[in-house]
Amino acid sequence: MNDTPLPSFPAPGERLAPSHASAETIALLTRRRSATAITMAEPGPSPAQLEQLLGIAARVPDHGKLAPWRFIVFDGAARADFGQVLGKVFAAANPDATESQVKFEANRLTRAPLVVAVISNVLEKHKVPEWEQILSSGAVCQNMLIAASALGFGAQWLTEWYAFDPQVKDTLNLRSGERIAGFIYIGTVSDEPVERARPPARVDFWGR
Predict the structure, then answer these.
(1) Going from the N-terminus, what domains does the chain have, and what CATH number goes with each?
(2) What does the H/E/C string look like for the chain?
(3) Segment 43-85, tens digit of pLDDT
């Protein structure tokens, strides 16, 4: 884990460099790989690192400056507490489920020391298209993955069934226009991920 001092965020109105040439950033992006939540363990991000992660996650393109997303943080005992909700919802929807299956679902969030739900908070009937607002939430998730890696943690962006379940959404008090863009699992990785096969980028050059 990287214990170097965290940089400060710029103040409103501060002039910023238009680019930031960085071989380290290019190397990170070239070799970034999600770690599976099951391989994560303590320690997780400190409170200061969590604040940094959320601040970096929010620094994304945002047409109309709407900030069409918000965060729900699960740490400490909150992970198991929310897991009890998942276990009950799963058991009710799957009456034939075994005790071990229900227990597995109840332990979903305890796989990592920190889980952050990114909530897409779309402003409906707004001049900024809903699609652009949703894309901004996706950028938030990706920023968080990259920032977690840069801080020395593994991270995985998951949805799974509970991101789409109406009862779970009600428990999280999601309002009209809100959806779960993803649960970002973050922790110290105990096993190095292995690079997977990746298809080549599909590229067309207009006019050629």
Answers:
(1) 33-75+110-189 (3.40.109.10)
(2) CCCCCCCCCCCCCCCCCCCCCCHHHHHHHHHCCCCCHHHEECCCCCHHHHHHHHHHHCCCCCCCCCCCEEEEEEECHHHHHHHHHHHHHHHHHCCCCCHHHHHHHHCHHHHCCEEEEEEEECCCCCCCCHHHHHHHHHHHHHHHHHHHHHCCCEEEEECCHHHCCHHHHHHCCCCCCEEEEEEEEEEEECCCCCCCCCCCCCCCCCCC
(3) 999 999 999 999 999 999 999 999 999 999 999 999 999 999 9
